[in-house]
Amino acid sequence: MRKIVFCLAVLLNWSKPGAAGILRLDLDDVIHPITAEYVVQGIAQSEAEQSAAVILRLSTPGGLDPSMREIIEKILSSKVPVIVFVGPSGVRAASAGFFILLAADVAVMAPGTNTGAAHPVTIGGGKLDEPMSKKIENDAAAYLRSFTAKRGRNAGVAEKGVTESKSFTEAEALKEGLIDGVAKDIADVVEQFDGKAIRRFDGTSLTLRLKGESVSSFE
Q: Cys-Cys link to 168, which of 21, 59, 85, 172 (CB 3.0-4.6 A)?
């Protein structure tokens, strides 16, 4: 009986969902409902699998405000830490991508990348009257402040990405306290941030355990 119980315990432990590696999401597109659904579903899968982390590799010129907010809402409420990595070298996370980058538990950029230029514009580039334009700008700036400050990032500088359409290279973003590091690729992200203690958006603390974890892609 003891052997049977022991074997059953081993089997249950083996089949129990645990830290199932690192789930990689690749967002190389405009932010719209389909890409938002991809990110939301990917994070949901990582939560179900109790992954060690999600790494969202980001390259985008921006996109739609509602889709951006849907992604950010999921990042902020995620049970699994979310690392956003702007890469490889030569890409950008502009406009809506700037918001998504700064919403991450860990924000990282590759050398030769840039972010910012997040002043809201209308679809088609039509011009709004001054009161409406200011109203939309203030709303976007307040939204950005609402999570960057809590993430421990420089909310004042971040706001300039909205109000002044300011852009930042990876070196400038790091110097200004907008991101947490610069890494050449995902392997470098894992190397640099393994063992790093982070504070989640809900106020809890967590130490990232990344080394030795397999990285799988969410298709």
A: 172
Q: Which of 66, 1, 80 is nearest to 35 (CA)?
A: 66
From the candidates 135, 175, 211, 217, give the one annotated as an active-site residue.
Answer: 135
Tens of pLDDT along 21-53? 999 999 999 999 999 999 999 999 999 999 999
User: Is there a contact between 76 and 147 (Cβ–Cβ < 8 Å)?
Assistant: yes
**Residue type for 191, please?**
E
Residues 6+ positions from 132 with CB-CB distance below 8 Å: none
pLDDT value for 4:
39
User: What Cα–Cα distance (Å) separates residue 128 from each residue in 86, 122, 134, 145, 164?
Assistant: 31, 8, 9, 24, 17
- DSSP element (H, E) containing 115: strand 114-116
Catalytic-role residue among 59, 67, 78, 95: 95
Instruction: Flag whether the pTM goes above 0.90.
Output: no
Tracing tokens 């490889």 back to the chain, one arrives at: 88
Q: Name the β-bridge partners of 22.
A: 53, 215
Strand ranges across the sheet with 215-217: 181-182, 106-109, 82-86, 53-59, 22-28, 215-217
Kindly tell me the sign of the dihedral angle through the C-alpha atoms of 39, 42, 47, 48: positive
Catalytic status, residue 135: yes
Contacts of 151 (CB under 8 A, 6+ apart): 102, 103, 104, 105, 201
